[in-house]
């Protein structure tokens, strides 16, 4: 009888430990991904079965945004939960070495303090000197590169700013770029000779991290440089899209397919390790697809949105956004209220039961009660943007925006000035997601009210750098 009682008590203890387990957290970030290039976003020419499966298991945020118009600012906001304009010398619109202010605490630091093992696989782009190294910013493990880009295969030409035929300056001819954007992969603080296709290597390392830490709560920041330039893929991958006539799009498709495959390998490992239901997964892009030469054109597709990476139009800041947590969130669900990448930190901390206790209140919001329909209101009354003299504010269905005027001409070449802005323009995004019909003249009071709100927000931010 005692043996039976002991067995029952043991089983109950195991169940209690399982019930109390903190969820694993995975944040997956794509780089320069087009809004409509994935199957769950309506894309048809690139197979993305694994991300489609993640969308089917989780929830899609149809009005999902990032806080920046390009790589570094978005990443600074994502890892702090704060509008990145709040910190750094210039509000992270320009910081020396793109370094994340040492006064700020990252999501990784908060989770590690709560007992999580933390890992970064992929692109960092938040400072390359020793004090800014990922393992000084909360990550136990690091495999990837420190700067804003990297060759996908060693020693290939590095065309960071291709034209629509894929031609352009080879950055290998620049000594700094050749030294820092090629054969610059690190494991921890040591250089490694990585010869695999880089997206596949990041998938391999993500799988390894999950497998090795499946018995304890972990945070994995899986930060791809796909589909950022240089446009590079293996011959085998490119051959899959041989029928695509556009030479840049052909490689873009191959790069996107490879990223989806790498993500699938990580998701499969969750299942193999028996921790799929214990894992909260976020997927997002760091900004919209670059449609302009100045921002590293890659033939991405942002339709039905207008604009590009580098602009405050929807095509620059509205991105694919998924959140999956089996058993906790509605599978195949759709959330239509505006949400932003800043919410990832707040949501992850809440899921982990971690007290935020930041130096200042987070700008991000815990989305779980909204996604679970416990709260009926919208998580944000307003969202704000500021980038390189451009601005935007979203309030309900309405958006007030001012952006680089050259965008209306359809091209902005590298080296061309971007200091001439459009007038303030007003759009109703529910009726006009493509931002085609400017309603500013018809709604002057709304324009004035929204501009006043944006200016009040802006007074709380760091002063931007001189243009």
Q: Summarize the main sheet.
A: 10 strands, mixed
Instruction: Report the portion of residues in β strands.
Output: 5-15%
Write down the Rg. Answer: 22 Å
How are the strands of the largest sheet arranged? 7-6-5-4-8-1-9-10-2-11
CATH homologous superfamily heading of the largest domain? Alkaline Phosphatase, subunit A
CATH class of the largest domain: Alpha Beta
> How far is the N terminus from the C terminus?
80 Å
- N to C succession of SSEs: HEHEEHHEEHEEHEHHEHEEEHHEEEEH
How would you describe the shape? globular
The overall strand count is: 16
How do you describe this structure in short?
This protein has twelve helices and 16 strands. The protein has 467 residues and is an alpha/beta fold.
What's the SSE blueprint?
Layout: H1 2-20, E1 24-30, H2 49-57, E2 59-61, E3 64-65, H3 71-80, H4 107-113, E4 117-123, E5 141-145, H5 175-180, E6 186-187, E7 190-191, H6 198-212, E8 218-223, H7 235-239, H8 247-272, E9 279-285, H9 314-317, E10 321-324, E11 333-335, E12 339-340, H10 343-351, H11 368-371, E13 383-387, E14 390-395, E15 398-402, E16 425-428, H12 444-458
Parallel strand pairs: 1-8, 1-9, 2-11, 3-12, 4-5, 4-8
Antiparallel strand pairs: 2-10, 5-6, 6-7, 9-10, 13-14, 14-15, 15-16
Helix pairs in contact: 2-8, 6-8
Plain-language structure description:
This protein has 12 helices and 16 strands. With 467 residues, it is an alpha/beta fold. The chain has 2 domains: 22-371, Alkaline Phosphatase, subunit A, CATH 3.40.720.10; 383-458, Arylsulfatase, C-terminal domain (2-Layer Sandwich), CATH 3.30.1120. Helix 2 packs across helix 8 (247-272) and helix 6 packs parallel to helix 8. The longest helix has 26 residues, at 247-272. The chain is globular and about 60 Å long. 51% of the residues are buried.
């Amino acid at each position: 009888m005692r043996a039976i009682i002991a067995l029952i008590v043991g089983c109950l203890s195991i169940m209690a430990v399982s019930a109390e387990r903190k969820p694993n957290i995975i944040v997956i970030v794509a780089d320069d991904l087009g809004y409509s290039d994935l199957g769950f976003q309506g894309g048809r020419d690139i197979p993305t079965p694994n991300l489609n499966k993640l969308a089917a298991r989780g929830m899609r945020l149809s009005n999902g945004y990032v806080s920046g118009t390009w790589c570094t600012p978005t990443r600074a906001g994502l890892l702090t939960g704060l509008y990145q304009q709040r910190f750094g010398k210039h509000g992270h619109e320009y910081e020396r070495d793109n370094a994340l202010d040492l006064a700020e605490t990252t999501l990784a630091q908060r989770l590690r303090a709560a007992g999580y093992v933390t890992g970064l696989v992929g692109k960092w782009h938040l400072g390359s000197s020793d004090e800014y190294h990922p393992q000084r910013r909360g990550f136990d493990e690091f495999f990837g590169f420190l700067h804003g880009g990297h060759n996908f295969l060693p020693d290939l030409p590095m065309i960071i700013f291709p034209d629509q035929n894929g031609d352009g300056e080879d950055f290998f001819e620049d000594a700094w770029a050749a030294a820092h954007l090629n054969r610059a992969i690190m494991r921890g603080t040591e250089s490694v000779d990585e010869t695999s296709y880089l997206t596949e290597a990041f998938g391999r390392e993500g799988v390894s991290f999950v497998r090795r830490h499946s018995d304890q709560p972990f945070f994995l920041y899986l930060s791809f440089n796909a589909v950022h330039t240089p446009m590079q893929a293996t011959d085998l991958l490119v051959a899959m899209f041989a029928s695509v006539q556009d030479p840049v799009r052909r490689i873009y498709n191959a790069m996107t397919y490879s990223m989806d495959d790498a993500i699938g390998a990580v998701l499969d490992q969750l299942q193999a390790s028996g921790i799929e239901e214990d894992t909260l997964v976020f997927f997002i892009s760091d900004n919209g697809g670059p449609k302009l030469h100045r921002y590293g054109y890659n033939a991405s597709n942002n339709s039905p949105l207008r604009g590009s990476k580098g602009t405050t139009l929807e095509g620059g800041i509205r991105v694919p956004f998924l959140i999956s947590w089996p058993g906790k969130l509605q599978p195949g669900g759709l959330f239509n209220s505006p949400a932003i990448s800043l919410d990832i930190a707040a949501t992850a901390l809440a899921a982990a039961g971690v007290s935020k206790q930041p130096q200042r209140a987070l700008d991000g919001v815990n989305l779980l009660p909204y996604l679970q329909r416990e709260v009926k209101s919208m998580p944000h009354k307003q969202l704000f943007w500021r980038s390189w003299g451009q601005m935007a504010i979203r309030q309900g269905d309405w958006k007030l925006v001012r952006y680089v005027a050259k965008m209306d001409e359809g091209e902005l070449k590298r080296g061309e000035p971007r200091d001439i802005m459009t007038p303030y323009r007003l759009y109703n995004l529910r009726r006009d997601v493509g931002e085609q019909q400017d309603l500013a003249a018809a709604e002057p009071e709304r324009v004035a009210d929204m501009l006043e709100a944006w200016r009040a927000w802006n007074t709380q931010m760091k002063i931007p750098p001189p243009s």
